[in-house]
Specification:
Elements lengths: L2 H28 L12 E3 L4 E2 L37 H15 L18 H4 L3 E6 L3 E6 L5 E6 L14 E7 L2 E7 L19 E9 L4 E9 L8 E9 L31 H4 L12 H7 L1
Parallel strand pairs: 5-6
Antiparallel strand pairs: 1-3, 1-10, 2-10, 3-4, 4-5, 6-7, 7-8, 8-9, 9-10
Length: about 300
């Protein structure tokens, strides 16, 4: 074979190998598995939901001051701004009912306080610590409060007509070092957010989990789409901070403080206060209304 031809073939072969290697590296980076388990230590909620540029999610009515817990001052309840231009009439009607509950003296706690599953993305917005359990085929997210466990399959396709459920049908995949979770099929008994924004069975939520700040924080970017509720899809973020490792001792054998926090099971109101007790939502297990009748008198 002529030397120049042989050289060109070798160069071409080397280029092909180089391109194939680069493609393999790119594919590997795209499907890289981030470590959200952090040795089982967990992530603490850090801050509130932050809206991203674009159509806005529901926010606090500017005429009603909202004071969260643990910031000083008397905490107040969330009270939705129904003048948000991104809301449909269906959404506004539902939020007006929630605001009327506050006006009547109802304590608009996070629904997990009454043992209700909040749905997605409300669960992302709930306070407390979360833990990840990652396996090749299934991922679990465990909420310290009330021991709520959410699971989703990896690298699968959605069912054609999934049965409606509290957390919906979630399918996950890794993409560019992020965990992407696509959720459909949520029951309309849940709410979109902590303002109690209603939704239809067409609610579609996409979450993108990733670590930021050198792995010290976990962030989820949430995209919410439901034409029955929002005129346009909206995006927001929520952040958790890595729980610091602590020295083990007699009172802390795990190296962290893993408390078991549970919902109040109806104990969050004095049953002698009949007027207020009658306004409470019944527990999910109160099928025949017996508990509500007992509290309401």
């Amino acid at each position: 074979m002529h030397t120049s031809i042989k050289t060109n073939l070798l160069l071409a072969g080397g280029l092909a190998v180089t391109l194939a290697s680069a493609a393999a590296l790119a594919a590997g980076a795209q499907n890289a598995t981030p470590d959200f388990m952090q040795g089982g230590i967990g992530w603490n909620a850090a801050g509130q939901m932050e809206a991203m540029p674009g159509p806005a999610p529901v926010s606090q009515d500017p005429k009603v001051k909202y004071v969260p817990n643990n910031v000083g001052g008397q905490p107040t309840w969330r009270y939705a701004d129904v003048n948000n231009p991104n809301l449909t009439d269906f959404a506004k009607d539902g939020l007006k009912k929630a605001n009327q509950l506050v006006d009547s003296g109802f304590a608009l706690y996070n629904r997990t306080s009454r043992c209700w599953q909040p749905g997605i993305p409300s669960l992302d917005l709930s306070p407390g610590r979360i833990y990840f359990l990652q396996t090749p085929k299934m991922i679990y997210i465990i909420w310290q409060r009330d021991q709520i466990v959410r699971h989703f399959y990896m690298n699968q396709q959605h069912s054609k007509n999934p049965a409606l459920s509290w957390n919906g049908e979630s399918i996950g995949r890794y993409e560019n070092g992020e965990l992407v979770v696509d959720t459909i099929g949520q029951t309309t008994k849940s709410f979109v957010d902590l303002y109690r924004t209603p939704h239809s069975d067409k609610l579609h939520v996409v979450e993108r989990f990733k670590t930021i700040e050198d792995g010290n924080k976990l962030q989820v970017e949430i995209t919410v789409d439901d034409p029955a509720t929002f005129k346009q899809p909206w995006k927001a973020t929520r952040t958790w901070a890595k729980v610091p490792q602590l020295a083990t001792n007699m009172g802390n054998v795990t190296g962290t403080y893993n408390e078991e926090i549970r919902c109040m099971d109806g104990e969050m109101v004095n049953p002698l206060n009949k007027e207020y007790a009658a306004k409470l939502e019944p527990l999910p297990s109160d099928k025949d209304g017996a508990e509500q009748k007992l509290l309401g008198g």
